[in-house]
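User: My collaborator sent over this chain with a note saying "see what the structure looks like." That's all I know about it. Can you take a look?
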Amino acid sequence: MKLYETVFLELLKAGMWGRKPQVPQGFAEWTKVVMSAKSQSVLGVVAQVMLSDEEVSSHLPQDMKARLKKFLMNNLLTHNLLNNTLIKVVSTLREGGVESVLLKGQGLARNYPQPELRQCGDIDLYVGLENGERVHDLLSPIAEKVDGKEYITVGKHYHVTMPGGVEVEVHRYTDNHLTKKLEETYQAASAKGTTEGLVVYDFAGTPVNTPSDEFNAFFVFNHLFHHFLTSGIGLRQFCDWMMFLHARKGKLDLEYLRKLLIDMDMLMPWQAFGCVLVDKLGMPEDEFPFFDRAQDGKTDKILSRVLKEGNFGKERGVYKNRGTNYLLNKTRSFFGHIAKSADLVTIFPKQVWHQYKNTIAVGFNVVWTDFKIRLS
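Assistant: Without extra context I'll predict from the sequence alone. Here is the result:
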């Protein structure tokens, strides 16, 4: 690992756990640290440490400090925009008789020491199979743009763009899985986790549902691991998962969670990624459920790939310099996923094999279905 990557991780750990960063004497590659944080979508946390720690801040150029302050202000404004949009959407759906469940995003931000430092993405709302068209009708009058109704039954979600450019993904399913057995197990867990034991957050007086703790613990990791095997994933998702587990220490039904991980054939990947949280991101070993030191041989390989690819693979060649040709972009992505699967087979052979088959089967189906819709 390069020195600037080590310093970047040290600053990230300092921000997540509220401790003083240890930076080598004379370190000067601050631009590379900022670029790493930006690539991993954790610049909010890292920038706050860089500006607030007197020793670090004294070594930063004035123009860099000004840009970091501007970024933090914009990130705060984005949080406010997303929270207000979430309130508007949830309230509109509730008034129309539809209860939704917030996935990831602004719900997970609540577990951060300073929620406004988490970099925002979009809003993911689960509404179930039976509410897709009803939600479409309720949101269309208040949205800037909504996918056509032909997309309601295609895939696991469709898109709604709200004022201010906030993207909302309306989910029919929380996710799908790669084999019939895994799909049945997952959908049963999802149905339970989005209807029972919901964790409700107060957003300026509006109750917002999030999944049950046990399902959320699995769901957040499942999302992280899926993108690690396919497009790529950043350290923001690792931090989301880590701070969720930290906040829920002692509250999880560990017997249920372990059974779900075993049934989904995810216990070993869970433990391997747990070593990254403990060894690289500073999580206390006793706070990580089912920690297994025997899996730490995968830690450096996992982290190296994450640092190389960036959040959602935006540093991968297949996602850079994309053109406007839809089919060409999809073809490049498809072969990029296949090559990635082959490269990861030595780390997670069984999961990669399932993902390889799924990429082939689902990839062609998604492109063909979307292509037909575009021509209709």
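A starting point for your reply to your collaborator: The longest helix spans residues 62-95.
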